[in-house]
Amino acid sequence: MLGLRELQIGFAAAVLDGAGDFDQHVRAAGLSGARRLQIYRNNAVLGLTGALEAVYPVVRRMVGEEFFRYAAAQYIARHPSRSGDLHEFGEHFPAFLQSFVPAAELVYLPDVARLEWAYHQVFHAAGHPPLDLAALARVPAERQGALHFELHPAARLLESAFPILRIWQVNQDDRTGDSLVDLSEGGVKLLIVRRENLDIEFCPLEDGEFDLLRALAGNSDFASACERAIAAQSPFDLPGCFRRHVSQGVLVAFHLPSS
Description:
The chain has 259 residues and is mostly helical. 47% of the residues lie in helices and 10% in strands.
């Protein structure tokens, strides 16, 4: 007889992956074990599909309910939930759409999904106190280039070759006016950030600003990040850009590696 842990692992695998012959451990009581597991499996798929619909409403609106549910079923089969927190489910959906043949003609769809996942992450991210300016001022000038800065947990950077912000905007429920998007508008570089009032903002960035934040988010030291920003855009107001993102709470912490 299986122990409790083995029963739980087997049941989860049978429901989420359809794996094994776990139905022999299910008491029939009017329905076969396989039939009872199928009921659980169907309910799990419905719940996970609902979670995807909540995270990706614009993708759902663009492709239609029937297509979205078909894509969701394929995604769930390949990427079953591994967490008890449904907020963590759907991370790989943009990458899935990238290789999902039925959506191949919608070349911008994966990036729209990435925008929605970033929005979801920002919405649920932890808070953070502002950057300690007094501590920053105590860093010797000759060591400032070695500083590593951290972005707020509720901030994400996203780059796309398509006008995904415009696509997202015209697919909101309260949108009025022109709903057409010209893909020739070109791409966008975005900062998605949750402000202190809990509003989420999409901030289009120029090349230098985006490269500065992206380098800092990638754990580059301050000197290297500044070099990338200046190389990406000339002229570039580096001091003004840095002060703005500190004052607006995008850059919230720093550390100085030991020399």
